[in-house]
Design goal:
alpha+beta, Alpha-D-Glucose-1,6-Bisphosphate, Chain A, domain 4, 8 helices, 9 strands, 31% strand
Length: 275
């Protein structure tokens, strides 16, 4: 398990800003905030802080705790790990209207990759999603809020896009309008980590009459692999869904989502192997 020193060094993205507001801001070192240690609460914490304005200390603390948790428990996530903790405040801060998380259910999946974080994120942002995930998407379009090349070069810390897609889950297709945010986070001791946060802006259009998906939230955090080789990650998703008469059990529906996340991580590795 890696331990992190107090973050006195400034991340590269904030150096110019800090110099502009004066040297006095650099005198003290702020301690990292306390982040949850258990995966259920930690995933919700990562979602909540994924786009904190100009302050990545919470994400740095979350990355440290995720690193420690995965050191011991990553094998327990392979078949899916229940995560149900997501706060109303974190989803209502998304500015898409008031939301109720009554009945929310979620799951997380861990993954180990031989590829570096920069390679994985560069593919997710810069490559064709339908080429990476040919079995997942029937349609996919994405509009960035600014030039993604700045983010890919590491000169911009964050990037946002709106996506429209039709997702094939084998037994059901789902049409979604989503927002996605990507973020680089510089840590003091083991370099750059990354996080992606996604949420549905409106209820999905689902091909099955007995299933409705009113809300879905997703987070994917990448941290360096053991001894700095490759990378490790956790994906988590939460859904507020309604199952009508004739629907499969709730755990079966979540199992489909878990399998999709796991396959998605494998497909991303497979795509990079072809490049």
């Amino acid at each position: 398990m890696r331990t992190l020193s107090q973050p006195c060094a400034l991340p590269k993205f904030t150096q110019v800003v800090a110099l502009g507001v004066g040297f006095g801001a650099l005198v003290g070192c702020r301690p990292l905030p306390e982040a949850p240690m258990e995966l259920d609460e930690l995933c919700g914490y990562l979602f909540e802080h994924a786009n904190d304005d100009d302050d990545t200390l919470a994400l740095e603390a979350g990355a440290i705790n995720l690193d420690a948790w995965l050191d011991v428990n990553i094998d327990s996530t392979i078949e899916g790990y229940s995560v149900n903790t997501l706060s109303d405040d974190s989803v209502n801060a998304l500015n898409d209207g008031e939301r109720s998380l009554d009945g929310v259910k979620g799951a997380a999946v861990g993954h180990t990759s031989e590829y570096a974080i920069t390679d994985l994120v560069s593919a997710l942002v810069g490559d064709d999603m339908m080429a990476i995930y040919p079995d997942n998407y029937e349609t996919f379009s994405r509009t960035f809020d600014e030039d993604p090349e700045c983010f890919l070069a590491g000169d911009c810390a964050s990037l946002q896009a709106e996506t429209f897609s039709t997702i094939d889950y084998s037994v059901v297709t789902v049409e979604v309008d989503s927002m996605v945010q990507y973020r680089w986070v510089e840590t003091a001791d083991y370099g750059r980590v990354a996080i992606e946060r996604t949420w549905m802006r409106t209820p999905a259009t689902v091909s099955l009459d007995f299933l409705s998906v009113d809300q879905q939230y997703y987070v994917w955090m990448f941290i360096p692999g053991v001894d700095g080789s490759g990378s490790r990650s956790i994906q988590a998703t939460w859904m507020v869904a309604q199952l009508g008469s004739g629907a499969p059990p709730e755990d079966v529906v979540l199992g489909i989502v878990v399998n999709s996340m796991s396959k998605g991580a494998d497909d991303l590795d497979g795509w990079l192997a072809t490049k």
